[in-house]
Amino acid sequence: MSRTAQLKSTAAVLEPRTLNEALEMRARAPDAMPLAGGTDVMVSLEAGVIDPPRFLNLWRLDALRKIEDTPAGGVRIGALCTYTSLGRSDLVLRHASVLIEAARTVGATQIQNRGTLGGNIVNASPAGDTLPVLLALDAVFELSSAERGARLVAAADFFLGYRQTALLPDELLIAIHLPARNADDHTHYRKVGTRLAQAISKVVLGARLRVVDGQVVEARIAWGSVGPVPMRSPSVEAALLGVPIDVDAEAKVAQDIRPIDDIRSTADYRQRVAENVLRSFLRSVVQTRS
Ligand SMILES: Cc1cc2nc3c(=O)[nH]c(=O)nc-3n(C[C@H](O)[C@H](O)[C@H](O)COP(=O)(O)OP(=O)(O)OC[C@H]3O[C@@H](n4cnc5c(N)ncnc54)[C@H](O)[C@@H]3O)c2cc1C
């Protein structure tokens, strides 16, 4: 019997009907693993990487599927939103079309129908495709617990180490807040894998440059699959800031990333590709503005 079939027959699944119920169950049963779309959980379970005694099934919590404007002019995306629902949202298109670009490269249709943005975030794989984009957009994560209520954590402070996050054992990720889009922003997403579709990334770039009067006034360059966590690129960002776009800033990439050799690629290849995709983005911004 496969491990997932075994799970169906043996493991307990807690089934909250409301968010409050879910938070109370989470506090009372921290050993129950939250289950959203299950597309990461089921793979880990089948591989024997995890063996939780029970699950906390979030799938019925429609309160976590809302996408709405925020008073600050941005958008709040419920943690249970799937990649498909992101792609169908006019609000996400208006505020963060680059996130939709990323969502469209995740898996194929089945995974996009079931996999959630919240699951990608809490799973915290360095290869999670949306994570560099969320870093580049200055996303803020809304975490909540029954005891302390909601708190906000910036994406830049959330990924603490290899698959370690700032989420506490009694908390759930509730929503993702994205700030208002600025007309001077140039955003970019680039995933490099073995194929264009259905591939785990070798390098992911999520980027945002705010350019005013020819000078970069805000720079966010973020990477996936080139280190133990999704990460910002402080040396590149500093090199870009306060000057006209410097297409040679890619020379700084090596100072920020920590690629490794693994079954999908080599450190050398990852570094070279990271430099290339950054240069190509910077050139495209220069061309758009000339
Ligand atoms: C065939 C296949 C292809 C894939 N392709 C890609 C790809 O191209 N790019 C990519 O980035 N990923 C890919 N994935 C991975 C996966 O689909 C995504 O990471 C997806 O977003 C996970 O979401 P989920 O809802 O299924 O999470 P789940 O599997 O349900 O959960 C993942 C983790 O997050 C926790 N969790 C989930 N939601 C919450 C919450 N609200 N609060 C607290 N904890 C929570 C769970 O406890 C678990 O630890 C692929 C997976 C498969 C099987």
Number of E-type strands: 14
Summarize the helix and strand pattern as letters: HEHEHEEEHHHHHEEHEEEEEEEHHH
Terminal-residue CA separation: 62 Å
Spatial strand sequence of the major β-sheet: 4-5-10-6-7
The profile of the biggest β sheet is:
5 strands, antiparallel
Please give the CATH architecture of the largest domain: 2-Layer Sandwich
CATH class assignment of the largest domain: Alpha Beta
**Ligands bound, unique:** flavin-adenine dinucleotide
The general outline is globular
Helix content: 25-40%
Q: Which segments are poorly predicted (pLDDT under 50) over 5 or more consecutive residues?
A: none
Q: Tell me the count of domains.
A: 3
Class of secondary structure makeup: alpha+beta
What's the CATH topology name of the largest domain?
Uridine Diphospho-n-acetylenolpyruvylglucosamine Reductase, domain 3
Provide structural commentary:
The chain has a five-stranded antiparallel sheet with strand order 4-5-10-6-7. 40% of the residues are buried. It has 290 residues and is α+β, with helices and mostly antiparallel strands. The mean pLDDT is 94. It has helices spanning 3-10, 19-28, 41-46, 83-87, 90-103, 109-114, 117-123, 131-136, 155-158, 234-240, 253-256, 267-289; strands at 12-14, 32-35, 54-57, 67-69, 75-78, 140-145, 149-154, 159-161, 164-165, 172-178, 185-192, 203-212, 215-224, 231-232. A hairpin with a 2-residue loop joins β12 (203-212) and β13. Helices cover 34% and strands 25% of the residues. It has three domains: 3-57, Uridine Diphospho-n-acetylenolpyruvylglucosamine Reductase, domain 2; 62-178, 2-Layer Sandwich (Uridine Diphospho-n-acetylenolpyruvylglucosamine Reductase, domain 3); 185-289, CO dehydrogenase flavoprotein, C-terminal domain (Enolase-like, domain 1), CATH 3.30.390.50. It is built from twelve helices and 14 strands. Bound molecules: flavin-adenine dinucleotide. Flavin-adenine dinucleotide (FAD) binds at residues 33-41, 43, 58, 79, 106-107, 111, 115-116, 118-120, 122-123, 128-129, 172-173.
